């Protein structure tokens, strides 16, 4: 029965994440910001909502390894699995803004995360710092976009939903994400106990993959529709939100204990693939995430998953 609940949880998270993205994008269209900003902020935060609900639920129910592992595993999966698979479908051009600001901010947040957990816990005041940094990132990104587009004859897509309908979509999606997260965490914990697998491994692999499904679907569809800025912006923005938003809010509500294997091993994999992404999106001018780079990223993900289970 746990396998059925696990599958239902995945499906609920997937469809709820999709509703949240539609509502968020419609609202952003009313404020007329670029697709890159939409991808880095609204879309990425919407697709990261499952991570927030899952990590918060796991921390409150005494499963800190799932709460932390979910974020680290999702960030690894976002870069290696999601971007890798999307680049294989269609090579992705890289905007200079992603290299000059978005990636450095993501890497800086990742390093700060590592420094904060060296004492084996993420405390409430560190969560407050994370949330403040997230607000700064959002405000600066939107302000910069509106400043650059001011005076330019930029064509914006009209919103498909009214503001009222968009808010209803977001509310419905939030309810779905809450129940989907509960099903996913509870069933994953039960399966882990049955097979003798640690909660850390479940969080890094099964739960992380499940909460990354919205990113995978959104980036693949965006690439297919040639909305390339949403594809890469979605991933970088999601990773920033996972650390600053998901862990920030969760640790403010409850301090999160961090196990030693995560500190000594998994966090370095996350930092490593983040740096690998930087190398792959170079040069600074007209960079491109080509198909062979997509295959490389996907191979890294498969090797990582294999190593986690064999250990």
Q: How would you sum up this structure, described in words?
A:
Helix content is 82%, strand content 3%. It is mainly alpha-helical and 311 residues long. The chain has a single domain (2-146, 162-310), classed as A middle domain of Talin 1, CATH 1.20.1420.30. The chain has a two-stranded antiparallel sheet. It has a two-stranded antiparallel ribbon with strand order 2-3. The radius of gyration is 18 Å and the shape is globular. It starts with a helix and ends with a helix. Residues 3-143, 166-308 form the Sodium/calcium exchanger membrane region domain. It is a multi-pass membrane protein. Pfam families: Na_Ca_ex.
Summarize the helices and strands and which ones pair or pack:
Blueprint lengths: L1 H30 L3 H26 L3 H26 L2 E3 L1 H21 L4 E2 L1 H26 L13 H33 L3 H26 L3 H26 L2 E2 L2 H21 L6 E3 L1 H20 L1
Helix pairs in contact: 1-2, 1-6, 1-7, 2-3, 2-6, 2-7, 2-8, 3-7, 3-8, 3-9, 3-10, 4-8, 4-9, 5-8, 6-7, 7-8
What are the main properties of this structure?
311 residues, mainly alpha, A middle domain of Talin 1, two-stranded antiparallel sheet, two-stranded antiparallel ribbon, 10 helices, 3% strand, Sodium:calcium antiporter, calcium channel activity, NCX_ion-bd_dom_sf, membrane
SS content category: mainly alpha
CATH architectural label: Up-down Bundle
- Cα end-to-end separation: 28 Å
Mean pLDDT: 81
The main sheet comes to: 2 strands, antiparallel
**Tally of DSSP helical segments:** 10
The number of strands is 4
Q: Which residues form runs of ≥5 with pLDDT under 50?
A: none
Share of helix among residues?
over 70%
Main-sheet strand order equals: 1-4
Order of helices and strands: HHHEHEHHHHEHEH
């Amino acid at each position: 029965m746990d396998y059925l609940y696990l599958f239902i949880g995945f499906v609920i998270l997937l469809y709820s994440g999709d509703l949240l993205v539609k509502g968020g994008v419609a609202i952003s269209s009313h404020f007329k910001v670029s697709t890159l900003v939409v991808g880095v902020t609204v879309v990425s935060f919407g697709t990261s909502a499952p991570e927030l609900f899952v990590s918060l639920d796991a921390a409150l129910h005494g499963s800190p390894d799932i709460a932390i592992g979910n974020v680290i595993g999702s960030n690894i999966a976002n870069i290696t699995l999601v971007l890798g698979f999307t680049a294989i479908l269609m090579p992705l051009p890289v905007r200079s803004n992603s290299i000059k600001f978005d990636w450095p901010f993501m890497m800086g947040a990742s390093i700060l995360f590592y420094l904060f957990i060296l004492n084996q816990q993420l405390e409430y005041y560190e969560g407050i710092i994370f949330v403040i940094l997230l607000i700064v990132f959002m405000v600066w990104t939107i302000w910069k976009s509106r400043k650059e587009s001011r005076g330019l004859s930029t064509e914006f897509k009209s919103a498909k939903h009214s503001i009222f309908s968009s808010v209803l979509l977001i509310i419905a999606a939030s309810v779905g994400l809450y129940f989907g997260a509960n099903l996913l965490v509870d069933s994953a914990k039960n399966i882990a106990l049955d097979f003798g697998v640690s909660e850390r491994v479940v969080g890094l692999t099964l739960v992380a993959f499940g909460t990354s499904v919205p990113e995978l679907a959104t980036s693949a569809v965006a690439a297919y529709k040639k909305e390339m800025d949403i594809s890469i912006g979605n991933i970088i923005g999601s990773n920033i939100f996972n650390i600053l938003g998901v862990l920030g809010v969760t640790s403010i509500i409850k301090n999160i204990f961090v196990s030693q294997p995560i500190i000594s091993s998994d966090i370095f994999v996350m930092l490593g693939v983040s740096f690998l992404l930087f190398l792959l999106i170079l040069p600074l001018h007209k960079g491109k995430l080509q198909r062979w780079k997509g295959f490389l990223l996907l191979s890294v993900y498969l090797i990582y998953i294999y190593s986690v289970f064999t250990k």
